[in-house]
Design a protein that fits this description.
six-stranded antiparallel beta sheet, 2 domains, lipopolysaccharide transport protein A fold, alpha+beta
């Protein structure tokens, strides 16, 4: 795991082998100035990150060609254990407010915010998606009255659901890989579904 942080006119690059509750294990912190000139490197087997004032235990400090040791070293950071954990949350489980907070954290770290933007747009589009799916289902049910076989009705419903699911996923992948814009990746499937509903409703009216 690596973290990029900027605080007090310093840039910190933190590399850790693992993270445990409130601790970073086997870590190296590289401290730079604003011109990315190295100030010092700090190595530690255990760093307490419960708060924003990190406690580096048994720190080995490397400055140019000299080395020193310190039993306890305090380093200020914009991140703590709770905030770092939020970076790795399941995006689908977050609210819009939490997603925007996560987006700001990603920007601070220099991470790509594409996946977060996709999830935000998906949440915004959900009400329209559910409305269109309700209309689509109603049209299917209305037309299926002519079919006597239950298995055929189930097959049509399953086939339609699978096609819509894969079309949505196809456009989500295009958006997340930046092949097309995020807005297009979210709203084109809805436009397709909306057009399909319109055509099917016209067919019903003509009958």
């Amino acid at each position: 795991m690596w973290i990029k942080d900027k605080i007090d006119d310093k840039i910190l690059i933190i590399n850790s082998n693992k993270i445990k509750p409130n601790f970073l294990i086997e870590s190296v912190i590289s401290e730079f100035d604003n011109n990315f000139e190295i100030i010092r490197n700090i190595k530690s087997d255990k760093i307490n990150i419960k708060n924003n004032d990190w406690i580096v235990e048994n720190a080995k400090i490397f400055i140019e060609n000299s080395t020193s040791k310190k039993k306890e070293l305090i380093i200020k950071s914009n991140f703590n254990y709770e905030r770092i954990q939020s970076l790795f949350s399941n995006l689908s489980s977050l609210s819009i407010i939490e997603l925007y907070e996560l987006k700001e954290n990603y920007k601070l770290l220099g991470y790509s915010t594409v996946e977060v933007d996709v999830q935000i747009n998906k949440l915004i589009s959900y009400p329209f998606y559910f409305m269109l799916m309700t209309i689509f289902s109603s049209i299917i049910m209305f037309n299926s009255k002519k079919l006597k076989s239950t298995s055929i009705k189930i097959s049509i419903g399953l086939f339609s659901s699978v096609v819509i699911y894969y079309v949505n996923n196809f456009f989500y992948v295009l958006g997340s890989t930046e092949r097309i814009s995020l807005l297009m990746s979210i709203w084109i499937p809805l436009l397709i579904l909306s057009s399909l509903n319109t055509i099917m409703m016209r067919g019903i009216n003509e009958k």
